[in-house]
Amino acid sequence: MSEYSLRRVASLALPALVVLAAEPLYVLVDTAVVGHLGRLPLAALAIGGTVMSVAAWLGAIMAYGTTGRAARRYGSGDRAAAVAEGVQASWLALGAGVALAVAMQVAAGPLASTLAGAESDVAGAAAQWLRIAALGAPGLLLAAAGNGWMRGVQDTRRPLRYVLGANVLSAALCPVLVYPLGMGLHGSAVANAVAQTVSGVLFVRAIVVEGVPLRPQPAMMRQQVMLGRDLLIRGAAFQASFLSATAVAARFGTAVVAAHQITLQLWFFCALALDAVAIAAQSLVGAALGAGQEAEARDLGRRIAVMGGVCGVGFAILVGAGAGVVPGWFSSDPAVHEQAMVAWPWFVGLLPLAGVVYALDGVLIGAGDARFLRNATIVAAVGGFLPAIWLAYALEAGLGGIWAGLALFIVLRLATLLTRLRSGAWAIAGAVR
Asked: In the predicted model, what is the mean pLDDT of the chain?
């Protein structure tokens, strides 16, 4: 990769890395704080956190869809139109966030009971956590929409300040609420909602000062929803897979689901950090295609795939070196440590492959190739991850069987994405695809 291309990617990826890492890093702090309350609160957080990952998933869909559309308009030389994409995405975010917060007040109990199985004490605690944490959903989705349009106009520095500031505040608030103020598990949920609300307010302020019209434009929102539909279906395949993995882990016992919470949150942390390369890909590839530079977009795609793999190897080395230390940050229970070590070799081995997969996701999202991504993900989930997870349950294969299913999922996705990259069919020029 040329020095110029590397510098362009790094200038976008490094600030995005901090933004992407801030939320899962807060979740890891949350897990560590709650983990020392005992096995039951940690298991409840595992259930509640998995359900609330639906909101984070909706936010990622909104951010990624907005980035691609805004980047193409920005690449064509129309910054105001790029920001207008952010305005309409923010209206969609507000509506979806309020609906999710209200729905969770009713659905928290049944969802927690379904995932926890026979562990009724865990289900009750998880439902209480969910009802409070869901109040932060509007802020979370508004922040996602703001991240999307800012990435599209290649501004990753303001999101860095907004997200990092809100999460540092909440990471400091969480242990105070949980321990000295005696709120326990509820304190974790309050801190979570505070961080998301503060972040959402900051992003709303940023779009207001841009000076573009703020009224809703149904036609543009419909176009965004059409793109979001394919990303939503793709995301549903992810959610079905990871919710099933948590449900199966819960049926192997409290120690297994607690260890699954630790390793899965660490996996999400690494995945989102690796997504920094994908964010750069979305912005640069979208801008190149918006400017009609198809050859540059294809070249960027190949180079970014290599960068993703290199970053994945780096994370694998760090995670492998921390095997004997990191689980102890989250729980002092020897049974939980033992189960975490079952998943650890899978965790380390999959990171280099995941680095390439996430980078190529970014390339194709930036190109607006959402339909292909939808179909490829469904095939990998329905044909790989989900059958493997429930087979692990039937065979009583434990946490190792669950992570073997994740490995199959990653390998299938890698094969389809590399085939698509090589074909070049995704590189279609134009201001909006």
From this structure: 87
pLDDT at 88 over 60: yes
* pLDDT digit string, tens, across residues 117-139: 755 788 899 999 999 999 999 99
Q: Which residues contact 30 (CB under 8 A, 6 or more apart)?
A: 45, 49, 174, 188, 191, 192
Residues 6+ apart with CB under 8 A from 51: 104, 108, 111, 112, 115, 126, 130, 243
Q: Give dist(CA 198, CA 169) in Å, integer.
A: 9
> Residue 78, class by beta-carbon neighbours within 10 Å (0-12 exposed, 13-18 middle, 19+ buried)?
middle
Q: What is the DSSP letter of 212?
A: -
Confidence of residue 249 (pLDDT cuts 50, 70, 90): confident
Tracing tokens 């865990």 back to the chain, one arrives at 122
For 310-346, the DSSP string reads HHHHHHHHHHHHTTTTTHHHH---HHHHHHHHHHHHH
Per-residue confidence (pLDDT) for residue 145, from 0 to 100: 94
Angle at 43 between CA 42 and CA 47, to 5 degrees: 115
Q: What are phi and psi of 292, to 5 degrees?
A: 80, 15
Who contacts 248 (Cβ-Cβ below 8 Å, separation ≥6)?
Answer: 389, 390, 392, 393, 402
Return the exposure string of 274-313: e unless at least 16 CB atoms fall within 10 Å of the residue's CB, then b. bbbbbbbbbbbbbbbbbbebeebbbbbbebbbebbbebbe
Select from 174, 103, 172, 101 the least CA-distant residue to 139: 101
pLDDT tens readout for residues 266-325? 888 888 788 888 888 888 998 888 888 888 889 989 999 999 999 999 999 998 998 888
Which residue bears the tokens 């650890």?
344
Q: Is 379 helix (H, G, I), strand (E, B) or coil?
A: helix
DSSP 8-state code for residue 128:
H
- The SS3 of residue 177 is helix
* Average pLDDT score over residue span 407-412: 92
